[in-house]
Design goal:
Shape: globular
CATH superfamily: Aldolase class I
CATH architecture: Alpha-Beta Barrel
Strand order of the largest sheet: 1-2-3-4-5-6
Structural class: alpha/beta
Order of helices and strands: HEHEHEHEHHEHEHHHH
Number of strands: 6
Number of helices: 11
Distance between the termini: 24 Å
């Protein structure tokens, strides 16, 4: 896994394996487990590793999340999807069953809010309820809705709760409202710049980061990121993607 180590060396604080840009939902549970095991047994610093374990099936989510904890990952968990009219009670019941069967270590879970993909929103009241119901388990949330008002509301309710926008497009503003950083697939294209912007609040560099990220808007995001990495590394294997994604 030299690429992941390179990203750490270039400024990333950690790696999230099997997120949306990593096409996790297009892989079988067995494929996802294989990737997790490969990273965990390859000498990677697991204190800097997180993995997406969300699944529509409770049994699959349990299997993946239990394996994540056993291997030393933190878990980034999307709500169950497909049934988009479920209630908050249903979401809480899902996490209750998931945590009862996986015995999460303290502060080992981040919620993954991406309603455009999942159809389910971790709105502030639901986040507050989940943190109350499962104290010492849920450490934070990745918010790929990139909704500043939602993030500010969650942080106001839970000042110690780590909120990570899913885009680096406005890192200085996100930091000002209390964000802990960001978790974004496109940060892999410019980790040095993103780290510099978040650390130093440099307005000129922030504008450059915003410009670079905006260049991806309107493109199919996953293949666009992969195509750029393929060009940077002169390695066409990066452009191999899993249907239903198509090459950029």
């Amino acid at each position: 896994m030299p690429y992941y180590r390179e990203l750490l060396d270039r400024g990333c604080d950690g790696i999230n394996l099997l997120g949306t840009t990593g096409e996790a939902m297009s892989f079988s549970a067995e494929q996802r487990l294989g990737l997790m095991e490969a990273l965990a047994t390859g000498g990677f610093p697991m204190a800097r590793a997180m993995v997406g374990t969300g699944a529509s099936s409770l049994a699959d989510a349990v299997r993946l999340t239990r394996a994540a904890f056993e291997l030393g990952f933190a878990a980034l968990i999307m709500p169950p999807f497909f049934y988009r009219d479920v209630t908050d009670d249903g979401i809480v019941a899902f996490f209750d069953a998931l945590f009862a069967r996986t015995a999460p270590p303290p502060q080992s879970v981040l919620l993954y809010n991406f309603p455009r993909m999942s159809g389910i929103e971790f709105h502030p009241a639901l986040v507050d309820r989940l943190v109350t119901e499962f104290p010492q388990i849920i450490a934070g949330m990745k918010d790929s809705s990139n909704d500043p008002a939602l993030q500010a509301d969650v942080i106001a309710r839970r000042p110690d709760f780590a909120v990570f926008p899913g885009s680096e497009s406005d890192l200085v503003a996100a930091k000002a409202r209390g964000a802990a950083g960001c978790i974004s697939g496109s940060v892999a294209l410019w980790p040095e710049l993103a780290r510099d912007v978040f650390t130093n609040d440099d307005a000129a560099k922030a504008a450059e980061l915003t410009r670079r990220r905006a260049a991806l808007d309107g493109l199919p995001f996953v293949p666009a990121v992969r195509a750029r990495i393929a060009r940077e590394r002169n390695d066409p294997r990066w452009e191999r993607i899993v249907p239903p994604q198509t090459p950029n």
